[in-house]
Amino acid sequence: MVFKKHQWIIFCVIFLFLTTERTIHATDAEKISQERLALYQKTEAITQIPWYYIAAADQYERSAQTNFPPDQLVAIEVEPEQWYGPGNTNMIMDENLIMMFQGIGRDGDADGIADPNNPEDLLYSFAMMLSTFGYEEADIKIGLFHYYQRDLTVKTIMNTAKVFRTFQTIHLTNRDFPVSIHHNYSYRSTWGDRRGFGGNRIHEGTDIFANYGTPVKSTTYGVVEIMGWNLYGGWRIGIRDIHNIYHYYAHLNGYSEDLKVGDIVQPGDVIGSVGSSGYGPPGTAGKFPPHLHYGMYKDNGYSEWSFDPYPYLRKWERMARQTN
Q1: Are residues 204 and 137 in the same domain?
Q2: What pLDDT sits at residue 24?
Q3: Which of 167, 198, 229 corresponds to the end of one domain?
């Protein structure tokens, strides 16, 4: 096909626009992350609550909410009665009045107003609430449970804080495919298919077929939440990531040496190998061809449910091939 001069000009303009648009989106996301990190660190400086706990709580609420504006700095939301105090029915933003009515709202930027829509006021108030319980890790956990009243929420926030503390950033966007792309493998969309073992149920994941011993990798940043035998999944690993998603790796042949519950992982870390374990008591294997069952479960702060990982696997596979 031969392009005329004006067609080449149009093509180049469109190409430059699309390339620039992708660059701007990536740059904007990183810029927003830097602004958030600066706010978290400023809040730490004036409250002595480590920034990574504040960042983890904010990240938890951001991931739990639907249709959250990506450019909004702070996601933490405080119920009006909790912010202003039960008796402050006129919702007056005076810090002294709020304190009198036992609300948690505080003036974080010294403008004389405790505004629940002000990012600095929100983070300062949240951190000051935590500080009433103390500053050690155990104290923070108590404060988080007092606020959220849910064990899984506290565990997720504490795990995310460990990740942020380890990498000293909140801009963690890398991903990887869960099996080595340098080995033979195959997969298709199998989420929702029927399964018969253990009763009539649906398949809550995608099966990636590969040879015994093919390396299995972490797809994301997170913390190993569970390891061990499961009747259905055999030798399995559960990793909770920084986006309130639980990643489930099942039918493994074995685990990576020294890997244990509580370890921090990042994309590409080898956590085990492909096997055919499961569908029986500990040690059962060979009842089906070797493969990795990969599942993803979303938590919204109230419940947790399975969703189809196939579109994400396709995307991560493309990313892995571009970088290898």
Answers
A1: no
A2: 39
A3: 167
| Structure confidence at residue 197 (pLDDT) | 54
> Domain check: are 99 and 219 in the same one?
no
Show the domain range for 129.
8-167
Helix (H) / strand (E) containing 82? helix 80-84
Instruction: Tell me the longest C-alpha to C-alpha distance in the chain.
Output: 77
Q: Span 235-256, mean pLDDT?
A: 96
Residue bearing the bigger pLDDT, 68 or 165: 165
Are 98 and 83 in contact, with CB atoms under 8 Å apart? yes
Extended beta strands in 203-315, E state:
206-210, 215-217, 222-230, 234-241, 245-255, 264-265, 270-274, 291-299, 304-307
Within 10 angstroms of residue 175's Cβ, the number of other Cβ atoms is 18
Q: Are the C-beta atoms of 216 and 234 separated by less than 8 Å?
A: no
pTM for the complete prediction?
A: 0.86
CATH number where 214 lies: 2.70.70.10
The token pair at 125 is 């108030």
